Amino acid sequence: MITDLSVPILVVDDYQTMIRIIRNLLRQIGFENVDEASSGQQAYEMISQKHYGLIISDWNMEPMTGYQLLQKVRADSAQSDVPFIMVTAESKTDNVVAARHAGVSHYIVKPFNAAILKAKIDSVFSSVAA
User: Fold this and answer.
1) Residue 3 within a domain
2) With contact defined as beta carbons under 8 Å apart, do 87 and 57 qualify?
3) How many helices (H) and strands (E) does the chain have?
């Protein structure tokens, strides 16, 4: 389903271990062009300087949450169409609904594996191509 494995991906998480896990899962799927940010603020600065084909962000970060990052990306006309996958340890319905309203492309609850991540990425890119 994924057509371009060279698409640049930005992984955002304040836990280096989680960034490493997601990077390894992406590598298993076949993605090599992966950048990382340890905060929403750092991610937003990177996004303003480089166009990413996919953003995978944790929800719970300080001082800018993944949700706030999503809102900023969606409000930026140059970035508003970038697929955005939110990762969280919480499956609260309110959070899922809020993320959907803010324009999240997909939502993954931790823990997850390469097959789940690939399915979500496939889904995101198939809806973008449609």
Assistant:
1) no
2) yes
3) 5, 5
